[in-house]
Amino acid sequence: MEKKFDRSMFLSKFQEETREHLRVLNQDLLIMENDSGNPKILEELEREVHTLKGSAKMMGYKEIAEITHRMEDIFGLLRQKSIELKKEMIDVLFESLDGVDILLKAIVKGEKHNVKVKDLCERLEKINRGEEITSSDFKKKDRMKDKKIKKKTTEKKKRKKDEEKDEEQEEEQEEEKEEEKDEEKVKKTAFSDRKIMETIRVDTEKMDKLVNLIGEVVVMQIKSERCLSRIKELKKSTEKQVFLWNKIYNTRFREGNFDSREAELIFNEVNNKNVQIKDESAAVFNEYNENSRQMSLIIESLQQKVMAVRMLPLSTVFNFFPRAVRDLAREYGKEIELEIKGEDIELDKKILEEIKDPLIHLVRNAVDHGIEETKERRQLNKPIVGKVKLFARQEGGRVYIFLEDDGRGIDIKKLKEIALKKEIIGKNTFEKISDREAMYLVFEQGLSTSPIITDVSGRGIGMDVVKSKIEGLKGMVLVESEKGKGTNFSLSLPLTLVTTRVLLVELEGQNIFAIPIAFIETVNKVYKEDIVYVEGKEAFRLGRRVIPLINLSDLLDLPVQSRRIDGFFVVVISHARQRIGIVVDKLMEEEEIVIKNLGSFLKKIRNIIGTTLLESGKVVLVLNVSEIIHLAGMINKVKVFRSREEKKKIPSILIVEDSLTTRELERNIIESAGYQVEVAIDGVEATEKLNDTKFDLLIADVQMPRMNGFQLTEWIKKSDKHKDMPVIIVTSLEKEGEKKKGIKAGAQAYIVKSSFDQSTLLDTIERLIE
């Protein structure tokens, strides 16, 4: 089982390594101040700060990475003689190193810092642009220093300081007046034609608890309504009892069967009591009925208001994409126009947070895979500017999000061939699967048509992430594509995740399960004569369609169901244009439920998405429809199983990285996944190890002393012994030109450290070593 790695365990190593980098950088900066033309010093400065940036990105410390990234650019420009070294630049670089040191101390102690990272980065950017650094750029820094000056100064210095302070205060007052004037102008123009809304900031955790509570209240409302039904039955029973007592009295006592005075008194007393019970029951029923009606109205109103607090417009997510598409288009040398509609539609905040990553995957794929390059579009007589459309609409309780492009579309033939090669489908399925069904192979893990793995595409994990994320939100994703004309992805999502309507079904008279209504197409009673066999498997006809049958007991590894002679019930579920019929023993009723997560220990139970609690106190499992349909589709797939006695060779991997933190972090991740790992600190040491040992895969940084990652990759691809060994480049170099250089060198994967995570690396390794 794969172990999760804890970044905190590498903090001490990161701290130690960063302090060493800071020491070397401070020392080399002092040397550079007196010997600015020394190329070796500049090269070492650039390498040290690059390594520090990479380690910070791997550890997730973005502020340190932002500062060191800009410092690296400056050292690169100095080495290329694109800018000239000046004293003010040295001051800013030293200030940057001090800032990194303060940030490091704050991280280690878990405290807040007072480093103005944004201001610091702006000054570094000013240097990168070749602009002059003036004394005003240090005003904020100098003020902070002035506050730390002790009172033991001479009167002359004190007076001078006071005069300077007065001048500064006058300047600040003038600036404040100008800012106030600007603010007044903004208020007059921005808010003159609309009402200023009052807002309140609410802790998200508190809101989540409140929403969960509302869900429970809704369930309690349903229970109360059922209780009301029981009281109604009690009322009827009481009325019947009074009627019977009256009948006995009239037929027995009045006819003279009871001539005792005592019997008459007893009958009168009982009769009076029954009348009281009848009147009381009617009063309770009327009162409870009115209360229940009012409670329903209040709860409905409360639920709407609470959900309105959680609802946010899609623009909170959609607004991210214009800039993202622009940057990606420029990076790939394409011209793309993005059209957005429906951004005012509101969704549950939780859903909005979860759909951002799937949408990013889809948009990046549209730009990378979908839209052709300018030259190709011109040859195809297509408009030079490619179009990507992102729009949404609401229908009832669901929201539909569509992403369309007018690009090259999905190559179904190529997709099927890759799926067959990777044994995702068998030969039989390859020959019989329709183009529409084959299109959904894009959601299979490990399947990609890209020739190179990068941070944008090619790893074969993006689309399966989209599918699992959307289905985890009780939604579904559909795809349509026409080769040469474009692709359309549509996401269907609920407005809220608070409650779900389900159908309760029963197995063997004791096991009850819940199936979300949103996935149920129809419910049928099927008889023995209705069953047909397709490729030796049971199915039944529904109109013109043939629906495969699966026993729910088989899906859940429960005792086999016995089919009733007089027919059995089938619940037809559909997802992603696929349908199957689930055979159950009994249909119960529909209910509005609150789905509870299974928890960390049970979250990987197959075919189950969560649990709920019925009014009887019975815990019911909620079926994961998408997983069930996927499992049903696996039946036709060809699987090759390894014999238990056959020993599986453990793949060996060589990590080449000059940063101790990054090297040990990668080693820990890969060894925890069950691979054998060797390490080398640079390209030269890697070639020495490769001459002695054959590895299954190599992971390398780019900027290393003696031999960099590109040179090492070229050496490997020219070697007869190692030319077939996959190479993964893990680097901080993010520019498209640098990626192309890695591809040209022969690398099979290019992972940027800023987008690095454990699953990315392991999935890439698994795909390349198969």
List the helices and strands and how they pair.
Blueprint: H1 11-34, H2 39-59, H3 62-79, H4 87-109, H5 117-128, H6 139-147, H7 155-190, H8 204-253, H9 261-310, E1 311-313, H10 315-318, H11 321-332, E2 336-341, E3 346-348, H12 349-370, H13 374-379, E4 386-395, E5 398-405, H14 412-421, H15 427-432, H16 435-439, H17 462-472, E6 476-482, E7 486-494, E8 500-507, E9 511-516, E10 520-526, E11 531-534, E12 537-542, E13 545-551, H18 552-555, E14 568-575, E15 578-584, E16 586-593, E17 608-613, E18 619-623, H19 625-634, E19 652-656, H20 660-672, E20 676-680, H21 683-692, E21 697-700, H22 709-718, E22 727-731, H23 736-745, E23 749-752, H24 758-768
Parallel strand pairs: 2-4, 9-18, 13-15, 19-20, 19-21, 21-22, 22-23
Antiparallel strand pairs: 1-3, 4-5, 5-7, 6-7, 8-9, 8-16, 10-14, 11-12, 12-13, 14-15, 17-18
Helix pairs in contact: 1-2, 1-4, 2-3, 3-4, 3-5, 4-5, 8-9, 11-12, 12-17, 21-22
